[in-house]
């Protein structure tokens, strides 16, 4: 397993994403739980979920898995809806998530995306949950640079540990200003949807990826994940529904790129040359 420094601690370079996990029939759910157990048994120590995912079904599945593991060895992340972003609703959402997850605290609790509640109110509510011992730290998701700058200027806004945005070879906008800003402010980054979501509908696979995958004797999905992880400085959270796919994800950690290979990819998927509107799925 490859590890990085994330949230000021040693963290597996890939976490376990859970979007659309726990929403199928019993057979599918059992396969998803087996995959999650395989990941945890083989060095992955971070799980990312949200109250939105299946309206609690994903959290419930995660809870049924992690109850058999030492809680101290797992970094557990969940998120709350923007319309639950007042101090009172943050507390009720959090307690509902904790019940589904069968735990008494979260390592990170994230505002899923920005809504109408003033950010200062949300920060106040999150700080209250830290003081209550229900969360260790908090963060945000789907925040653009202007959102991060505003947050940083608020009372206790500098306590934001994490921002989670879309990041894959076809969605590189965050590289221009968001990633540099977060590094400067010691804020860790989570990249979601390294494969462009479930069916890859948000990422066009160009010939260079197929050619490189064949040359390296890996799958295109493994290549995509390895590319996201190439700099050893972000956490990626691929969703995995089977042990086979979990093994593939873990094996992708061993894929390296030459300078020439990265340059070839760059020709088809160029880095941003200016600020771009934040993409999200």
What is this entry, summarized?
With 281 residues, this protein is an alpha/beta fold.
Question: How is this structure best described in words?
Answer:
- With about 280 residues, the chain is of the alpha/beta class.
- It has one domain: NADP-dependent oxidoreductase domain (TIM Barrel).
- The protein contains 10 helices and 10 strands.
- Helix 3 links the parallel strand 5 and strand 6 (about 105-110).
- It is globular and about 55 Å long.
- The relative contact order is 0.15.
Give the end-to-end Cα distance, rounded to a whole number of Å.
Answer: 28 Å
Instruction: Bin the strand percentage.
Output: 15-25%
CATH fourth-tier homologous superfamily? NADP-dependent oxidoreductase domain
Helix/strand-derived category reads alpha/beta
SSE run: EEEHEHEHEHEHEHEHHEHH
Major pleated sheet: 8 strands, parallel
Strand order within the widest beta sheet: 3-4-5-6-7-8-9-10
CATH class category: Alpha Beta
Total count of strands: 10
CATH A-level architecture: Alpha-Beta Barrel
């Amino acid at each position: 397993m490859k590890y990085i420094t994330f949230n000021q601690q040693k963290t597996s370079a890939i976490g376990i994403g859970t979007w659309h996990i726990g929403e199928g029939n019993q057979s599918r759910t059992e396969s998803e739980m087996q995959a999650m157990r395989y990941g945890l048994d083989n060095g992955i120590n971070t799980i990312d979920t949200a109250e939105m995912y299946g309206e609690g079904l994903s959290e419930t599945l995660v809870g049924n898995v992690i109850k058999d593991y030492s809680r101290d060895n797992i970094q557990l992340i969940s998120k709350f809806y923007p319309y639950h972003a007042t101090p009172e609703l943050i507390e009720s959402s959090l307690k509902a998530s904790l019940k589904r997850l069968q735990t008494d605290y979260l390592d990170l609790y994230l505002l899923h995306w920005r809504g109408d509640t003033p950010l200062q109110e949300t920060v106040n509510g999150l700080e209250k949950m830290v003081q209550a011992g229900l969360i260790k730290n908090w963060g945000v998701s789907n925040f653009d640079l202007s959102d991060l700058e505003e947050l940083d200027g608020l009372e206790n806004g500098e306590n934001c540990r994490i921002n989670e945005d879309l990041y894959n070879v076809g969605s590189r906008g965050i590289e221009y200003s968001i990633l540099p800003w977060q590094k400067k402010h010691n804020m860790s980054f989570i990249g979601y949807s390294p494969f462009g979501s479930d069916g890859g509908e948000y990422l066009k696979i160009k010939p260079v990826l197929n050619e490189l995958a064949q040359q390296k004797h890996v799958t295109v999905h493994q290549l995509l994940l390895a590319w996201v992880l190439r700099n050893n400085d972000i956490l990626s959270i691929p969703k995995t529904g089977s042990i086979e796919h979990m093994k593939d994800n873990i094996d992708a950690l061993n894929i390296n790129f030459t300078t020439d290979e990265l340059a070839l990819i760059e020709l088809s998927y160029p880095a941003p040359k200016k600020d771009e509107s934040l993409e999200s799925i």
